[in-house]
Every structure is written in structure tokens, then in C-alpha cells.
Amino acid sequence: MANDYPLLPDRHPQGDFFVCDIFDAAPKGDIASMEHPIFSLSTKPDLRPRKYEHNGMTVEIKPSSDGLATVHDRDILIYCISNLIRGMNDGKEPQQVVRFHASDLLKATNRMTTGRGYDLLKSAMERLAGTRISTNITTGGQEVFDTFGLIERARIVRETRDGRMQEVEVKLSDWVFNAIRAQEVLTLSRGYFRLRKPLERRIYELARKHCGRQKEWIIGLATLQKKCGSGSSLREFRRLVTAIASEDEQYSHMPDYKIRFDDKKDQVVVHSRGTVTAKVTDVVEIPPLDPEVYELARQAAPGWDVRMIEQEWRNWASETPKNAEMAFLGFCRKWFERRGRP
User: Fold this and answer.
1) Of 102, 117, 127, 193, which shows the fewest CB atoms inside 10 Å?
2) Which of 30, 33, 201, 1 is nearest to 110 (CA)?
3) pLDDT tens digit string along 201-257?
4) Hey, how many other C-beta atoms are within 10 angstroms of the C-beta on 42?
5) Whether residue 103 is found in the same domain as residue 168
6) What is the secondary structure of 103-157 as a DSSP string?
7) CA–CA gap between residue 94 and residue 183 (Å, rounded)
8) Maximum CA pair distance of the chain?
9) How many other β-carbons are positioned within 10 Å of the β-carbon of residue 207?
10) pLDDT averaged over the chain?
11) What single string gives the DSSP state of each residue in 233-272?
């Protein structure tokens, strides 16, 4: 039956999933929150403070009265991160305050554009701002020990007469912004936004982080439960994971990876579908630069071998920039700002 199909409908099938040219960046998630259970799997207000420790990393997460930020709330961060990374690849300096049209975000993340869709977006921003995190996880080479929110604030710039938000400003936390500046991000499948269950999204994030382009990744069920941040009993968690694996075996609905459960060894086996390699290459193809740009590059990074910097930039770029020369010069300026003279 159609109702048994595990994916959400493609609510905005016309054109590109990212509907505007400025927002047609590939979805990106920050690696730290893909690795660690920052977001709640609950679809109801989750008021449980929690502490996660793994391999010397500690994360304490405290909810506001609205509850913890959820896996679905993370769509807002993915949207902001994606577009800042796209801008950086085009040579633009990232800004901590991101301004966008609410309808663009809703369409890009496969959400409803009805009044309820806007209400849910407001609630998500409140939970993101209210959830407080203390951690020793580093982003961008910096350790953050202060308590902070995933976003510092969200502001509705303009509303229509019927109360729907049009333009929104989000100020990202230093923690998230440091990860963006350091390109500590991974590309996600756009099919991620069609996954119904929060646990499916969390398992996909972990597969994307740990399996990556490898053919296979295996994780014990108890460790997976810990990494997912699930509050279920191990028995109930096993039932939920088994259901996801069974649905994936039937429908192949999980993006990029096959999810299988080995009940004899009580572990989850992730097999790559080969789509990540096809979509994300190790080196982005960038055409040769205009020879005149190298003199400008020497002025932007005095004392440095600009050909060496160019190779670093080509290895660093995750997408082909619209204006390669401007993007390269922006990279040279940031290189010199961070390192100074050799």
C-alpha cells in the first residue's frame, strides 16, 4: 500500500530541490553534530538533559522549556551551512548572520509551505536557540567550553498580512560557524529530507560520517544506540533498527547506503550503494585559472608560493565555483590571515 512506503512525498518536485539559483548548493551537515548525538530523536517535547561521553569527548545538552532541538530542527542548520559553503566556494566571506526567505527553506528541505509549515519552522528555531550545549569538542581548531546554543538568535524580518514569515535572520553559534569556516562539513543526499523517521535520519548521518566512500561499515547495536542518543531500552531500540533495516531491504529507501541488521551478532551493517563516490569526488574539477590572477594572488598572500596555495585550494574545494578566479583570491586572503608570512 502507498501508506506503507517509508519516504515522505516529494512535496516540491518541480525543478531543482534547491529552488533558487543562490540556494542550489548541495546539502551539507557539520561533522561534529553528525558524529555526536546533539539532537533529540523524539517527536514530542524532550525535556531530558543528557550527557554523552565517547573517546574523551564530552557533550552536555540541556533543553529549554520548549524541549531539545530535534533531528528535524537540524534542517535549518543544514540549509544555512549549505549556502554559506556554496558562497565560500564562490570566494565570498561567510557571515555569521544568515538571511533567507522562509519559503525557500521550506521548499529546499521538503517541508510544507502551509501555515502549519511556517508555525513548525518558528518552533524549530525556538528549540535551536533554547537548547544549550557544553562540550570539549573542537570545531575549526578551537575548543569551546562555554555553554552555547546551536543558534544565537532567530529574527523574523518581515511577515505577510496573514502572519506568515517571509524573511528570516539566523545568527549561528560560534561553534557552528567555526566548523563552517574550517570546512568541517560533509555533503548529504537530498533524499535525507524525505526520510520520515528521526532514527532513520540519525543512522544516515552516522553512515555518511563513518562509512563515507568505504564499501562497508559495521557497528554494534549498543554503540549505535549510544551514538544515536536514543532513550529507548536496548530491546526497543533493536526492534526499531530491525524495522528500518527490513524496510530498506524491501524498498531501498535509505539514501547512499544499504542498512542491514545482523541479529546473530547484534550489529548493524552498512553497505555503500556507490552513490557518494559518484556525487562527491576527492578533487573537484576546476578549469585552469586566468594567468593574470597569480599576481593578484601574490598580493593577497605575500611571501607564499601561490601555486602551492592553488593546489591546496583545489583539494579543499567541495564544489566547482561560479567564478574560479574570485574564489581562489578569497582563499589566498584567508590563507594569509590565518598563517601570516612564511
Assistant:
1) 117
2) 201
3) 999 999 999 888 889 999 999 999 999 999 999 999 999 999 999 999 999 999 999
4) 17
5) yes
6) HHHHHHTT---SHHHHHHHHHHHHHHHH-EEEE--EETTEE--S-EESEEEEEEE
7) 11
8) 66
9) 24
10) 86
11) -HHHHHHHHHHHHHHHHHH--SSSEEEEEETTTTEEEEEE
C-alpha distance from residue 70 to each of 34, 80, 181, 199 (Å): 13, 16, 24, 11
- Nearest residue to 168 via CA among 202, 204, 122, 224: 122
DSSP state of 93: P
pTM to 2 decimal places: 0.79
Among candidate residues 225, 228, 206, 15, the one with its CA nearest the CA of residue 108:
15
- Please compute the mean of the pLDDT values over residues 52-65 and round it to a whole number: 85
Percent of the chain exceeding pLDDT 90 equals: 50
DSSP letter for each residue of 42-77: -SS-----EEEEETTEEEEEE-BTTBPPBTTTHHHH
Residues 242 and 321 both lie in one domain: no
Question: How many residues are there in the chain?
Answer: 342
Statement to judge: residues 54 and 109 lie in one domain: yes
Q: Does residue 160 share a domain with residue 56?
A: yes
Residue 38: what residue type? Answer: I
Within a domain: 209: yes
Clarify whether residues 82 and 201 are in a common domain: no
> Is 157 within the bounds of a domain?
yes
User: Which grid coordinates belong to 54?
Assistant: 565517547
- How far apart CA 192 and CA 17 sit, in angstroms, is 12
Question: Are the C-beta atoms of 181 and 94 separated by less than 8 Å?
Answer: yes
Are 28 and 188 in contact, with CB atoms under 8 Å apart? yes
